[in-house]
Every structure is written in C-alpha cells, then in structure tokens.
Amino acid sequence: MAEDFKLSTQNEIRVRYAPSPTGFLHIGGSRVALFNYLFAKQNNGKYILRIEDTDIERSKSEYDKDILESLKWLGIHHDEGPDVGGNFGPYRQRERLDIYEKYIKKLLADGNAYYCFCTEEDLEAQRQYQLSRGEAPKYSGKCKNLSKEEVEENLINKKPCVIRFKVNPKKVDFKDIIKGDLEFDMSLSGDIVIAKNLRYPLFILAGVIDDYEMKISHVIRGDDHIPNTPKQILIQEALEFPKVQYAHLPMILGQDRSKLSKRHGATAVSEYKKQGYLPEALVNFMVFLGWNPGTEREIYSMNSLIKEFSLEKVQKAGAIFNTKRLDFLNGFYIRERSLEKITELSIPYFIDANFIQPIFKTEQYPPAYGAKEILLRYKAIETGEEITLETLQKIISIYKERLKKLSEISELTDFFFKEKLDYDKNLLKWKEMSDSEIKISLENLEKIISEIPQEEWSRENLETKILPEAERAGDRGKTLWPLRAALTGKQASAGPFEVAEILGKEKVLKRLKEASEKF
C-alpha cells in the first residue's frame, strides 16, 4: 500500500502560492506570490495558484475573486489554478475532501494519528497545570492510549473530537534556502491537531498532501511558517512523501521595525490600485522587500526580474516597508507611461470626484449583438461645459510630472471644473504686497489678457504679453503669483500660463475679475 503514496523523482521546478480567501490580498501575500512566480519562471518551472478555502466560516467568494483579480492586475500569472485548470486539480481545497480523507485514514490505520476527545476545558486545565510547574504547554497525549473499543464507542456516541498526529520526539533539521541550516527539538512539541474529522484537515496537513499531489518541489513562504515546517516534515515522513525544499521569506516590518499593520500601509492590493498605484511600481517595490540584487540599480521590469532574481540574494532579516520609496517608484512609472494611457487611468478619478460625467449614445452595432454604448464626450457637472478628451489630456500633461499616485489628480486639478473658486484673498499676496498693489496687478493682467485675440490664445502668446509686465514690476512674483493664485485658488499649482491656456480666455478674465473684487 505504501507504494501508492510515493512520488517519483522529479526535476521540474514546481512552486505554489496558497492563499486563504478570508480577506483581501495584501502586500505580504502578493510578495510571496511574486517571489514564487519569479523563481518558477527563471527556472523554466511552473507556478501554481491554490486556494486554501477549508475555513468555511471565514472564506468568502468576494475574497476569492479579489485574489484572482489582484494577482492578474499585478502581472503574476499562474500556470495552473482554479480559473485556468491544470493536470493536478482541483485547485480549491474545498473540492479536494475525498483526497484528504484517503490520507487521514492512512495516518490513522498506520498508527501515526489518533482521535482526541479532550474538551476545551480539559486542554485548558492541562495547560494551566504545566504552566504552574514551569513547563512549556503542550498536549499531554491523554487520548493517545485509548483502546480501539473506547474510540469506537465515543465515535458512535458522536462525542466531539479532533484528529491528532503523533509527533516523533526527535530532532528535525533541514536546510532553508534563505535561512540556512535549521534544527528543531520536537520533544518540546506535543501531538498536534491535523484534522477536524476525516474530511476536513487543518492547514498543516492539507498543505503537505496538496504539495505532494501537485508535485511541488519548493515551498516559498513567509518566515512566520518556520515553526510549521518541522511538523510538516514529520507528516511527510509518516506518509512516505519525499521532502520538498523550503525557502522562508523575511517578515515585512513597518518603519518602526514592528510587524507591518494597516497603520504602516498594509492595505489590500486592490486599495493600492484604487489609490492610483501602477502594477509595475508595486511589483518593483515588493521585490525589494527582502531581495537585494547587489547593485545600485533600482528600476526593474518583470522580464528583467525573471532574469536576475535569485532566492540566494534574499536577506534573512526583516524588510522595511517604506511608503516614500513606493511613491517614488510610482511617480517614475507614471512619468514613463504615455499621456494617453495616464489620461485613460485618471478619468475615473475625475468622475468619482463628480467633476465630469461621460455622455454616451446607444447604437445597435452590429445589430445581431444588441445595443452598445459609445462614448461621445465628457461634460463638467458644475459648469455644464463640454470637456473634450484633448482638454483632459492637456490638464493631465501639466501635472503628470508631479503625480506620486493617480488619485492625487482630482485634488490638484479641481479648479478646472469649477464655476467659481472660493479662497481667502490672502492667498493672492506675494511677500509684502499691499491690498492695493494686488488689486492693481490683477486689473493690469485683466487689461493685457483682454487684448489678446481669441485666435491667438496660447501659452506662448500669454508669456509674450505678460512676462514684460512682470519684469517691469521689478519682482516677477508680484505679477505671476496673483495671476496663478487667482486662476487656481491654490497655494501651489502648475504654471499660470499653462493653466490659463487650458482654462480659456473667457474663464481667465472672469476669475481675474472675481479676484480683484476681493479688494
């Protein structure tokens, strides 16, 4: 019978990422997926996605969907998985219960596991007693020696129970690709719970079975799993499975070197996407959470990472999560993307901020396939003005260099879509300018701009007409600061000529007049 459970020697690299759909995919999990993916692709191997959803109460379809969509958005594409299939499925644990039952029965039949009927009260009393004696708490093995008849009677009477694995009290050692040689004294561990019943294994057993069945060669995961590894090695030995190779990634830490939490920025990948981070920036950022290429190079595409990544260059110590670095990388990738693409990605932020709304028409094209909505244009909600795609591109073009994340675009550019700006008149003051000086500067600007023909309205002509006036004032700021502040209502913004060109002559004159009326 043992021969049925043996795996033939394999040379192919096969790794897996095995998330539980009990929450949205976060940076920690996506980094594990990335490192598995890079290792597999570099070695011409296979990267498998396996959903560990046996926690029925906490597993939700919305989390399952989020994991799949977030990994796809990041460009971490699995070769086998629940949505793409493969030769070693099913790839959701809830669909593998028959497989688990076979192995759990084997462990019981071979005497490597047993039913435990201890209640929570029993276990707590044992724990308290051991602590009172200065001993490390572990299961006493009380149910290990129950007779077959006692076990059967308890099962017939449906007495609550779990299934425990008999932990061999020996030293277990293994070589971790990242951490090096590790050794554990298993005499310090009691017999561990491995299943709720014959069909519902816990993580520690299900992972071993699935890794064997799916021919996984390397297990790459977070170092919080290191205590599980010697236990899983003992289970592998009991089931006569070959050992896999392990690589445990360093923990991700906040700036204060404490465990990463939401206050440090440990939000879901989908939230980073919503905030306007680009997938290539997140990938570039995540790979440096533990990996050091040994060079000064900071920017890596996915293809270059596949060529240069190695587990041997992953550090042992914790990796620091630095949001400023993520923002730097994201700003770089925003600047690298085409204006057309950044505009496409930015438009939803304008819509969500209620600045614009898309105007569609419905067409039957082709008739056999029913109605299809065709985007005609955009309209500013507050002013009712038509906003062309070209105008949106111009707005984004003067802020593209400033963006750290796309969500910033709506706050930076809101003045383009407003009927009237509301700001304190002190915003218009440059250094020690008096109210009368500001009013005169605004009225002069209004006069100069009103004389520019509509057909000659451009940034270049605005500069040609206004800069000489600014120079004559002796301090250019006395002219340009009130102009920019009047047009934008902001302490900082893009240059006044770029802004004015996009706003148009009529709106520029209107805002200059409204600003001068404050004095």
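(the above was protein one; protein two follows)
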Amino acid sequence: MAVKAEASKETEAAEPTPDAVVSLVGISKSFGGAAALSSVDFSLRPGEVHALIGMNGAGKSTLVSVLSGAHMPDTGSVVVDGVAHPGLTPRHARDLGIATVPQRRDLVQELTVAENLLLGSLPTSGGLVSWRRIRREAKSALAVIGVNIDVDARTADLSAAEQTMVEIAREIRRGGRVLILDEPTAALGGAAAEEVRLLVKRLRGQGKSVVYISHHLEEILDLADRITVLRDGTLQLVVANEDLEIPQLVYAMVGDHVVSDRPEQERTPGETRLELRNVSVGHRLAGLDLNVAAGEVVAVLGPAGDAQSLLFPILSGRLRPDTGELTVGGTPVRLGNVRSALASGLRCVTGNRLSYGLVGGLSVDENLLLSRDRFDRRIVVRWKDLRRRALALREKFGVVTLNPNPPVAALSGGNQQKVLLAKWLEGSPEVCFLEEPTNGVDISAKADIHRMVDDFAAAGMGVLLASSDVHEVLRLADRIIVVSAGRVVGHRDVATVTRDELVALTVGESTHD
C-alpha cells in the first residue's frame, strides 16, 4: 500500500515540474487500439540521472520515443525549457538538445573513431576534407567527456564499452544536453560496465541530464537520483533514490513479488550427454575440459567477453578451435562444422539474439519455425499450418505480442528471447547450450526463463550455460566452472560455493581449485 500511496502523491498534478529541463505531461499513446501509455508524467532536472524502469512492455520504449520525437503522442505535451509542444520530431528534439544512445550500436564499424564522431559534419578546407581538423576535433570531443580513445582506430576494433563512449561523445558534440541511455551496460560486465557508469557520473557532474534505462537494480541504485517505474503503460512510482526500498520497487514493476528461487528438489544427474576435452583457442581459451549429464545444469562463468563467450561459436560449429574434442551422446562431433553440430542433436541458443538467432524483419511465427528441421521440404509453404504450429509454441513458451504477428524485432527483449528458446528447444533435445539466456530482459521475463531452464533439467535435458552473471549462475547451476583470462581457475559445487568466492575467482584474486 505504501507504494500506491507514493505513486498517487507524485502523479496528482499533471503540469510541468518547475525546475525541469524536460517534462512529459499527461502523455497517452495507443497503437492499433492497444494503449502503450496512459496519462504518464515524467520530468528530468538539470544535472540529474533519472532511471526509467519497468517490465518489458511497460511503456519505457514508447515514452522514450515520445521524448526523442520518434512518436507523436495522442494526448499530452512535451515541455522543454518551459515551452510546451504537442509533440516533437526527431530533428526538433535534436535541435533542442535531446539525444538518444540506443542499446544496439549506431556506429559505422568500418570507419575510424574520428570519422564516426564527425560523420555528417566533416570539416573541409578548399573543398577537400581536412583530416587534420577531423582528428583534432575528434580528440576534443572525447576530451570533453574525459575519455582517451585512439581517434584513428577502426571502430570495429573497439570494445563494447569504448563504442558506447564514442556514441555518447558524438551526441554531446552535436549539442546533446539531455541524453537517453538505453541499456548502456547490457552487453558489458565487470570493469567495462564500471567504465560506462563512471562516465555517466562525470556527465552528471558536467550538468548533463540523463534518462537511464536498465534492468540491473544494483546499477540503478548506484547511479540514479530519482527512479520512475512504469507498468502496463501507467505510472506506478516516482521516488528519490535515498527513499527507495527494493521490495517497493519490485512491487511497483510487477504488481507482486517475483520469486525466482532454486527448486527445492535436488537434481539427480544421469548419463553424460556432452563432453569437451582440451579445447583451446589461441590465448583466449586454454585446455577447457567439461562434461554435462542428463538432468543437470553446468555453468561456465567468467567476466563478459572472457573464455565462456567462445563456447557458442565452438559448439555451434562456427569456430574450429586449435585443439579439442567434442562428444555428444557418446558420438564424436566434427568441430568447426555447423552441419555436424546440428546433426549431433546439440542445440545452441545464442546470446546475440538479433545478429545470430533471429531474423528481425521476419514475423514472430516465421522465426519460430525457421530452424532447420521445422519445414517440410516442399516448394509451397502451408501458412495455415505454420500459424497453427507457431501458436502452440507461443503458448508453451509464454511469448506475448500486442499485435497478432509483428516482426520479431518489434518485440521486447524478453519475448525475443522466448521466441529464440522456442525455436531451438521445442523438440526437447537431449542437450542444449544457452549463452547469456537473460541478457537484456526484465526481471519478470528473467524469472520465466529461469523456470524454463528448471523444467528442461527436470525433463532430463542436459543444460550447459555460459554466463557472466554470478547471481544467475548461483540460481540455475548445479556445478560451476569458473574462467578468468582464458583459463579455468576453479570448479565449484553450487551447494557449497559463495557469491564472494565466485567473484574473487573471476577477477583473479584466487586460483586455488
């Protein structure tokens, strides 16, 4: 009840906040008759980090789209510096200093850092591009935010954290004073995520205003001055960080407490389903051994980008390691061969949904039935049969969409992940590999996916998990293999290991097995 009272107090007056640089007042927006936002207010003060959170489908993306000019609201107004507008266009929003850094990188990977920073406004001299000025202005743009990156480096060679910093520097150079950061650390871990968080704090110190979207509650508590919670398109809570309690926040997001505890019944492993022996890839992975039995979950835990990130390309057949052997169900599998990996019965679910797992422009139903063994080898596709089979998969895996059959790219991260799981695991394979299965999903979808993994193991499936999330590994796994700097630094049983011990192993504080 305390949550509802707090939310009610904050939302009574639908008028701009006096000291706000930007206010959204009474914003409503519907798509095809479905309400995405209903009379939502939001304000952002100068030099403030304001976290915007909620489950997938809560309305965060729509609210941000209204603020950035991508969507015109049905009702309400956008107030910038005290001036009310019925809505903004993307150009108008940019002219007012409102900039968005999306979760998916918006950089030209083959261009240099300097070229990306000045793209669209390259300085010229005598009708020719002045590369000296480009480098000088690029260095200046990075210096403004306190970042030191080689401006002549190819963007594709940068780390994910560095690419995020380049995008932020570019938007500030263009005049951005209100920054919308959408899951800036979703694909990062450890030191890389901390670099981005420190940059956000520097931006606040420089007087920039930041709308920060994240699913990581600990991160929000570290960064945010205020927190706004949306649920089902309505405003549930606006609260100052120092007044927040975690149970209050979770209740505001989901309407109930989401419990994601380990199953009470202990798992009993069966026969070995998968074995890897002496797998090495240059300096990135050295001599990995592991096995997975029927009915158990084995996790390979490491910092983001470490050795565990090589398991998907190796197991799916996209990468042939320098050394190593793979056996599935007692049968040797040819490494570096996708066809052989699929024929083995091993199913690999990527953590990079829209690059390697789904086809963003195809519909949900088409993606659900796109895996190699779904279609009969006929010239004509029976669409009625496809829809019937896809509907059964949607219901089984809990895929929710506002529209009947939208492009899969339009879904929330949680629903995209459920489509991906349904696509590969519906046939209940004997063994599967899951790479970062809850990356970029909200806490409710995360709990759903955790329960699915429990069900897979309970049905006798062997599950190999690659993760950089210590909490997730402790929640799901029976055994944990810890890697750091490309090497195995520990084998642990989840029943006896502690969180602090796992963290210490991943950062190299201890190498005792």
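Reviewer note on protein two: The two ends are 48 Å apart (CA to CA).
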